[in-house]
Design goal:
The chain has 104 residues and is α+β, with helices and mostly antiparallel strands. The protein has a domain at 3-74: Winged helix-like DNA-binding domain superfamily/Winged helix DNA-binding domain (Arc Repressor Mutant, subunit A), CATH 1.10.10.10. Helices cover 53% and strands 15% of the residues. The strands form 2 sheets. A two-stranded antiparallel sheet has the order 1-2.
Length: 104
């Protein structure tokens, strides 16, 4: 796959607010689909769909333990990309569980 196509796929995966919220949640550590649903408040199928997109772009990985999948950010590069994007739009990644907020 061409580099430009891979990069477009990456940015496409990052172009959804729900996926950004999922990455923010996973910044704090591993979570299951149910954990993510409980915080975001979206249906399980919707969360699973978003996680498939993030996974196909190599932004998240998971470990299967029994019947549950525990999702996590794939590596430090993903955190850097997210933080750089937030800096670019004038926001900071908050350390708490609040939504992403503009820092004055």
């Amino acid at each position: 796959m061409q580099t430009s196509r891979k990069l477009a796929r990456l940015f496409s995966a990052l172009s959804d607010e729900t996926r950004i919220q999922i990455l923010k949640l996973l910044d704090d550590g591993e979570l299951t689909v149910n954990d993510i649903r409980d915080v975001i408040g979206t249906s399980l199928p919707a969360i699973s769909y978003q996680l498939r997109i993030l996974s196909s772009a190599d932004l998240v990985k998971y470990d299967k333990r029994g019947r549950k999948k525990f999702f996590r950010i794939s590596d430090a590069h993903v955190k850097k990309i997210l933080n750089q994007g937030l800096i670019h739009v004038g926001e900071e990644l908050m350390d708490d569980d609040s939504e992403l907020e503009i820092v004055a």
